[in-house]
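input
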Amino acid sequence: AKIKLLVSQIAEIETITTTSEFDALLLEAKLIHDNAPKYNVVLKDDKSPLYILLTLSEVLPHVYTMRRSDLPKKFHKQDALFGPFQSATMVRSILRQLRHTIPYCTQKKRTGRPCFYSHIGLCNPCPSAAGTDKTLYRRNIFRLKNILCGKSDLVLKDLEKDMKMAANEQRFEDAAILRNHIQNLYFMMQKRYDPMLYMNADTGAEDIFHSELESLRNTLVPYIPELRHLHRIECIDISNTSGRQATGSLVILTDGHKDTNEYKRFRIRREIAQNDTAMIAEVVTRRFSHPEWPKPDLLVIDGGKGQVRAAQNAHVPVIGLAKHFEEIIVPHGPDWKIIRIPYTSAALHVLERVRDEAHRFAISYHRLLRKKAFVRE
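output
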């Protein structure tokens, strides 16, 4: 009854595009807080929505999660309150993920001894320890505030700047820790599509496919001028266990859609001990020994420079997608061009979709061969 009444009173629908799913969740909480929508009240139980409170007025701020009834009646003007979040699970999930990027303390009482989480890198520096670097800890909490405000890009730039500084000063362990924090934040900023979006062959999905392919072509054309269209994209991946039961997969996107009828799988013929590049070369050679198969407009290889180099005898445009920051590897004359585009880029969505599908298809065949080998033994 509530939904029917809500729909009958809708006069206009507006959408706001954010850079990531994470930012969308934070924006939703902010809009609920600012507008207090009548139909957004969850009446499933007697619990009120959850809030995140940062006590920035303290020298060593606390990070609290609180129900509405537990919130203090008065706030210091420096404190930051975020919410309401309709799902406590979502709030705790956000904070757990953020802790791998911005370490902070969850202890309510400061005992003078480092907390447990300081020993596993999730609280650094620990405000409970004697002689804590207060400036560094406050900086972490302010970075946490910026992320919760939707300013993840600013935090990312700060972390990259700190990492380069640490590397220049030969503090390589600190630089490695910051690198891991950056990777965790990249992961959080990555946009995840609802799979149903691509399963519905309606006009909306077709427009998305078209815009993705155009974005990818525009990204690659400066380095691959002959790339006129992307009607057919092929991707090759390898799966093996220490070189045994090695398999290769070939998956195809036709106008952005998975063309499962065109998929091919290969059992690596030569005994190559964990040599992915040689396996890629074999699959590419065998694939292009079939002139009756349509040629791709673009061949994507799951891997870096070595794997792409092994596929360059295909005589079609070839690129690689490296898992490190999802970098696009493009042969550019005698050199290489490394393209790093935002995780939210439509161009990257195409490459990730075809890469993930090639990986899935290769692993499924590899597991089948392993199962057969186990039965024979």
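quick obs: The mean pLDDT is 84.
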